[in-house]
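Training component of the fellowship. As part of building independent skills, the fellow (R.M.) carried out the full modelling exercise for a liganded target. The chosen ligand was adenosine monophosphate. The inputs are recorded below so that the supervisory panel can assess the work.
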Amino acid sequence: MLSLEAALDRLLARAHPTSAETVALADAHGRVLVDPDVLARHDVPPVANSAMDGWAVRSGDLPGRLPIGGEAAAGGAPPALVAGAAVRIMTGAPLPAGADTVVPIEDAKEEGGGVTLPAATPGTHVRPAGGDTRAGTTVRLDGPLGPAELAVLASLGAGSVAVRRSPVVAIVSTGDELVAPGEPLGPGQIYDANSAALAAAVREAGGRPLVPERIADRADAVGAALDAATAEADLVVTSGGVSVGRHDHVRAVLEVGGGVDFWRVAVQPGKPLLVAEHRGTTVIGLPGNPVSALVTFELFVRPYVRALLGLAGDGRAHPRVTMADAASKDPQRRAFLRVRVGPDLVARSAGGQGSAQLRPLADANALLVVPEGEAATVAGAAYEAILIGAVG
Ligand code: AMP
Ligand code: MG
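Fellow's submitted model of the complex:
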């Protein structure tokens, strides 16, 4: 059985970033820049401007009553400041030549064509040119582009950006017992929990899910599904059929094809994880139990999808937390317990830790990492946690 590190190293060695494509800035949310270092071609802001509605003046003329010498509004060229006068100025309007200070409207008293202003330090309420970003500097935007990153790119004038093509990830759920949610359940049948869950996890990781029909537990059906999925996708993720049962055909088909890289990793849940190549495409075989499938997705598929986007790691915070509960585990494997971490960074078990117990996973906001060699958590001891949801 491989350690998590050894398995992850072997898996990630197979990942090569996808090609580049150009998209409009408006379509770039969640995408990843091919080159995260963006060159600023001009100052942001382009010219000095006012941070307040008020009066643009020369600070040396203050305090005093000054005549009003015109108006500067946002989006136009301002009048020049006549020495000893004040220009009415709006937030965002370019600073008139000669002015060095803005006095807010609240501090001024306007009457009879003049305005009375208190003393002010030079530069007050002035946003200098390049005060946010100087022309010629590089701005690092590494990671999926969120609202703030899009605002920075827009301020730099980028109408379109070169991003990684979103990796297509096929989700192949196998099992004779599986029924699509919404359909009636027959005897012995259960609802397919993995197709929807894994597709959502693919999207969260930055990929584009492709979800074909559920596949029956027959070697020919599994083989045909793998042929079709590997032809279309950058990565194929299967669920079920990788354990040691008589009807675990995913592993059997991949073994017959000679493409199995490794099988079984010392993690709990998720031991039967399998990595293979089929027709030139990487296949990650996840166990069918929904908790095992989602936890192994987090540990293996998410970093792989990110590697296809040129991103390192899992993109999660890994704080040290204090575990409040004692929970047992397999000493041979590293456990990833479903826990709820509070703002005080104290973790509590989110419920039963069985690999088919889905609701504790939905209640959890973190996976508590308990090392190999330990048979249980020690209440009050510190552990690494992988945050998969908001703390609270
Ligand atoms: P397997 O890995 O195929 O041996 O399946 C292990 C367990 O997970 C069995 O109890 C299956 O019924 C269950 N299972 C497999 N696939 C799914 C799925 N897509 N949704 C819900 N449960 C599943
Ligand atoms: Mg099965």
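The panel noted the following from the submitted structure. The helical segments are 4-12, 147-155, 194-205, 219-232, 249-256, 290-308, 358-363. The chain has four domains: 4-16+166-308, 20-44+131-164, 49-127, 320-387.
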